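User: My collaborator and I are trying to settle a disagreement about how two of our proteins should look. Neither of us wants to argue from intuition anymore, so we agreed to look at predicted structures for both before our next call. Could you fold the first one, then the second, and keep them clearly separated?

Assistant: That sounds like a sensible way to settle it. I'll keep them separate. The first protein:
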Amino acid sequence: MSQLLTIAAETENPLLPPIPELVIGLIAFVIVFGFLAKKLLPNINKVLEQRREAIEGGIEKAEAAQIEAQSVLEQYKAQLAEARHEAARLRQEAQEQGAALIAEMRAEGQRQREEIVAAGHAQIEADRKVAAAALRQDVGRLATELAGKLVGESLEDYARQSRVIDRFLGELEEKAEATR
């Protein structure tokens, strides 16, 4: 067995590199690592920091936008409530004005109706007077003719005719008042 160990020590292990190559590789690794740490790592950290700031800034902007949107929504709701209140007030005013206008138009219609009725009564009274005068003339003429036929003489005299007519109509009015 000892023989085996000596043989193994004399022969090189293919898995273990020679020491000088291992030292040169380690020095090269430290140089490359130092170069990357000096030049590349700050750039990588700077880019990562910018991304982190952009993400945090985006989140902050989103939160600010959300707060602003919430305040705008509250303002909108307040304006909407105010507009609804104003619309209700305007509707109430319109209803009141409509009721006042209707009352005014009714009063105006009542006044016009009363004027028309008064004018109708005045017209009827005037027509009655005209009819009474025409009737008085017709009755007077007929009464004069009848009286002339009864008496046998002409009663063409206007003064006499007026007296006879007035007396006859007076008697008729007295009888009419007595029956009332």
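The second protein, kept apart from the first:
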Amino acid sequence: MEGTKPVNKKLAAALSGGAVLVLALTGCGGDDTNEKLDAWAKQVCDAVQPQAAKIRSANAAIQKETSDNSTPEEVQQADSKAFQDMSDAYKAIGAAVTKAGAPEVEDGQKKQTDAVKELNGISASYSSLRKQVDGLDTDDQGKFADGLKDIASELDKLSKSGSDALGALEEGEVGEAMSRQSSCRTATAPGQATQG
């Protein structure tokens, strides 16, 4: 199994980058209150919290599988489930932002639409990676390692593809309203740098 070890580590590193996208969902501190915006932020934050936990668990599962002396079959199984979980989680966050409606801020509608489009795009990317990992040949270690390399580079791109729309959604008043929600604060990974 030695041959796939460094690739697995690379996969795990790339993956943890991807999780930053959703965990960026914490705003900067602010004192202004806006009841409607606070209600919107609470609805989104409450929905994000369990999904962020799901993404962290999926990451942990991949990290564990890459650090153990796992067989290609075990790695494939763990990665496939983790990618599916992540795909579901991002889709659910997109649905939550859709359901919450546009925040009552300037360009709120555009910010909401862009964020949902981005979240759904990330969801589709993870779903596609699951199909890719499911199609790997676990009988041929060399091919399996090459396949994981491709997936790791896709993940790397995915984590860098930016959380621009999410960042835009969380700017200014929206970010401040989100930072006042305890569920958004707890959605952040321990030790994760918050924006602002």
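Some points you might bring to the call about the second protein. Residues 1 and 162 are 34 Å apart (CA to CA). DSSP finds eight helices and no strands in the chain.
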